[in-house]
Amino acid sequence: MEEGAQEELVLALREVVSNSNWQFVGEKESFRSHCTKLYSQDGEHIVLVHTRDDKFYAMDSACPHEGGPLELGDIEEMGNGRFALICPWHDFDFFLDDGSSSSGLQNQVYDVKECDGNVYVKMQSSLSRIPIKETEVRLCDTNLSIEHSQYSDSENSLSFWAAKILCTPDPEEKAKLTHQIQELWNTEQITEIGQTEPPPQPSRKTNLRIVEPGKIKRGKGGTLASRIALLHSLANIEQWAIDLSWDIIVRFAAAQQPNGVQLPREFFSDFVKVAGDEAKHYKMLQKRLIELGSDFGTLPVHNGLWQSAADTSHNLLARLAIVHMVHEARGLDVHPQTLRRFAAQGDDESVKVLEVIYGDEITHVAAGLKWFTYICSKEERDCLSTFHELVPLYFKGYLKPPFNTEGRKTAGMTEEWYLPLVKPAQ
Q: Which segments cross the bilayer (predicted)?
């Protein structure tokens, strides 16, 4: 191409960029890392991926599963010249070219162009390589009041044992103690709810390798190592789920409704049951890992899941919405494909474990929905609008399909709860 024609082409491309949603994000040489996070004014941040074959791709940086930081993930070659970005939290893969995943999830991708040594991304919202300061907004603080002026150390209180379980580092002991306290509560040998100061974060064994999310490696798809890695990841989730159940009990034990009445005993009974289920799930997964020649703790884990608890530590409605009606509901969405992956490899025993977990998780979503609507009714709030206001405040990004419509419906979450939180088509 002659020099004059090349200059005209460059000018024409620049004009197209200036009159469209194409945004200059940096010079090509500045993107030396394989993943770079780009911050969006609308809060839907993206990750720009630079592959070793010198191509650029872009997709939403929050994993559609539970919001894991994809910018900390690894790039894997998946065959046929295709690459995938691997979520560092739960190993879900997302093909760079179309955002599809072997898990059945779908991530939003964006067009990327390189012109004259510069990189452009097509997106409506403004992008920056510098984090955009987010305004601290809490529009939906609950009217529940929480008084922690007097703590009780009575060993006959549920709160005392909830805090003790949170401070138990060994997951097997944590699960065992959970079932013991569940039995004592159900048989009314423990009757007092009490008030005990919750620990800032649950304890973990000193030999458990807790690493940055992006440092966790996974086995290749379709291998025994891959199944072990996924089961290990699920066991880590269940360990945190035990803690989340006890944390909601001890942290909100003193919560009072607008009329000054504390939450009913049934609230605590429901989450004692959830804790017992999660302990059962951990033990089942641990047993399966041993059967496959592994053990919990042989692989590194991350503690990113506790962030949701920290973010909602002051707001019970937000805790119910994010942990139970977003994260646990998302677990229902990915279950069918996860089940198919194990079934395709002839791992019937793992399939049985996953089926038990799935059935219980439906009841956990239902419990979150039950108490979310209960509190909203006591505070004379509209349930749907409150949920739709809370989720964007405490959850990164939009909710993304595909959804397990039937599983969610069984839990009571019909489409009007979550479809309004899906990203609008551009």
A: none
Q: Distance between terminal CA atoms of the chain?
A: 35
* Model pLDDT, residue 221: 45
- Cα within 13 Å of Cα(273), Cβ side: 16
CA distance 396 to 66: 9
Q: Please report which confidence band the pLDDT of residue 65 belongs to, taking 50, 70 and 90 as the band edges.
A: confident
The DSSP string of 304-318 is GGGHHHHHTTT-HHH
Pair 239, 281: CB distance under 8 Å: no
| Per-residue pLDDT reduced to its tens digit, 122-134 | 988 888 888 765 5
SS3 (DSSP) at 141: coil
In a 13 Å sphere around the CA of 262, the CA atoms on its Cβ side amount to: 15
**CA distance linking residue 193 with residue 160, whole number of Å:** 8
Residues 6+ apart with CB under 8 A from 258: 143, 144, 378, 379
Residue 394 · residue 66 · CB < 8 Å:
no
Residues, the chain = 426
């942990």: which residue's tokens? 323
- Strand order from edge to edge, sheet including 112-115: 22-27, 118-122, 112-115
Looking at residue 87, its amino acid is: C
Confidence of residue 142 (pLDDT cuts 50, 70, 90): low
Q: 10 Å Cβ neighbour count for 227?
A: 21
Tokens representing 173?
């002991």
